[in-house]
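Backbone-to-sequence.
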């Protein structure tokens, strides 16, 4: 299973990348764990996930080909 991960804002600055692929992740909690293991500084950063352009606030199952965007926190106005 391949998950496409897009980085925006401070997450892109920390990773030095705009996108990468992850394999063998089943859910957003597992993805968060792998991201923090690979990029330690992300652990201290606040970010949210958008799965296929929909913000998710709790652990969500991932499917092959999904795109997960790592977004900085934001507020509406």
């Amino acid at each position: 299973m391949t998950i496409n991960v897009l980085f925006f804002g401070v997450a892109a600055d920390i990773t030095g990348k705009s996108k990468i692929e992850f394999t063998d992740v089943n859910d957003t909690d597992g993805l968060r764990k792998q991201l923090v293991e690979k990029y330690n500084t992300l652990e201290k950063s606040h970010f949210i996930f958008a799965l296929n352009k929909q913000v998710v606030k709790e652990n969500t199952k991932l499917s092959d080909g999904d795109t997960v965007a790592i977004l900085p926190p934001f507020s509406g106005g």
